Amino acid sequence: MGTMKLLPDSIRTRTILVLVIGLTVSHMASTAVYSTDREQALASANEQMVADRLAVLARVIDSTPDNLRPQVAEAISQPTLQVSWGQTVPAAADHIDDSQWEQIRASLRPYFGPLDEKRLHVVDLTARAQPDLTSALHLLHGGAMTRHLQVSVGLADGSWSQFHLQGADRISSWSRQSLISTLVMLLGTLIMAIWATGWITAPLAAFARAAERLGMDVSAEPLAEDGPREVRVAARAFNLMQRRIRSFVDDRLQFLAAVSHDLRSPITRLRLRTEQLPIETLQQTKMLRDLDEMEQMVASSMAFAKDEATDEPAQAIDLAALIGTICDDMTDAGHDVVFDWPHRLVYRGRPLAMKRLFANLIENAVRYGHDARVEISSSPERVEIRVSDHGPGIPTQQLEQVFRPFYRLEASRNKRTGGLGLGLATVRGIARAHGGDVVLRNLTEGGLCATVTLPNAPRIRED
To answer: How crowded is residue 408: how many other Cβ atoms within 10 Å of its Cβ?
Structure first.
């Protein structure tokens, strides 16, 4: 679990990470292989050049009279090649016979014939001339390690020509150019990975937005069926699911509206027949009361179905002014309602739906809590409206159930005691259609608080 937490959260970021790491490691490995081959080729060419150079210089000294050889050796000396001549046989204590210097022996052979250890000495002075720490630091900075070599060649008359060489033994694979190349590759890979992963994951983002729209509005625009074959198949399946859900919701709403409409006629006939009874009795009064409640249920059900089926266009509204108007009306009716928000609060939504939402909440607060306190807080991401009262509140286990249609805390359907239980269902439906939500909570000091949360940039369908 700890390893998973260290990984990036999004598919796009994980893909970019895999591409960048994989291609960088591959580039470094290929650079190392290429550099090794290049170093071997350069080393072989360098050895051949050095060998040919020594052979020519040794031949020049061998062809020069003895009295002029010191001056010639001094004249042909260079900062990286010190040449000297003498009769003394060089000490062989540090003599090496390494196969990698066979090219020197082969280059001298045409001029001096076969050379054995008695006529050719190769001494490696690198360890004495350049300490290991210095060499390591030099290579670390991308330079070449300088090798010091002393080659002594026995001439035909028994004298010796000595050559003190300084040259690059090997070049670091990770030179400054190699590091720059790796950084350029890394930057190019990163740019391409960001573009490619954005292109590949765009359908997933489109699916997420379409699912979010569908959760708010079953009549939202269908998903575009384009792109790669797999994306087209998934988009086609998503649109089919959306059409089925929309058909299911429409059928249920039409059924509810039809039943409610058809019930009005028999209820009216029953009312007329009850009122025409010759003697007014207690049973007659109860029957008329039941018929009133049935008629109220039918009317509320039809209103609920109509509200759900209504497709009101969105527009910019002053949410603070809308809430203030509702509060003023409630105050004029003699209710204790407090709302203080001196600023405008421009919000893009459905005006009539928003008015029903806040009117239901404020009326519920006044009806059950005997007062209402409305507060607003706004941020760049969301708008939060809180409607609180000082009533008895709601049992904790029923805070969610009261949002179900026709669910009431009070068992009767009497209008004077709370209606049919469709108000909060309508409130939550409107809030979620705007991409928000409504939650209830009991206050510590007593009372109930309804919090409406709306996104500051609601994604709702506009016609």
So the answer is: 18
- Give pLDDT tens digits for 354-409: 898 999 999 989 988 889 999 998 888 889 999 999 988 888 888 888 888 777 76
Q: What percent of the chain has pLDDT over 90?
A: 11
CA 249, CA 299: separation in Å to the nearest integer?
20
Single-letter code of the amino acid located at 41: A
Residues 120-135 as b or e (16 or more Cβ within 10 Å = b): bbbbbebeeebeeeeb
- What span, in angstroms and rounded, lies between the C-alpha atoms of 237 and 357? 34
- Nearest of 186, 167, 71 to residue 126 by alpha carbon: 167
The pTM for the full model equals 0.49
DSSP secondary structure string, 130-142? S-HHHHHHHHHTT
Cα gap 185→368, rounded to integer Å: 69
| pLDDT tens-digit map of 140-177 | 344 455 667 778 887 878 888 888 877 655 555 556 77
Tokens of 351: 């005006």
Cβ atoms 444, 320 nearer than 8 A: no
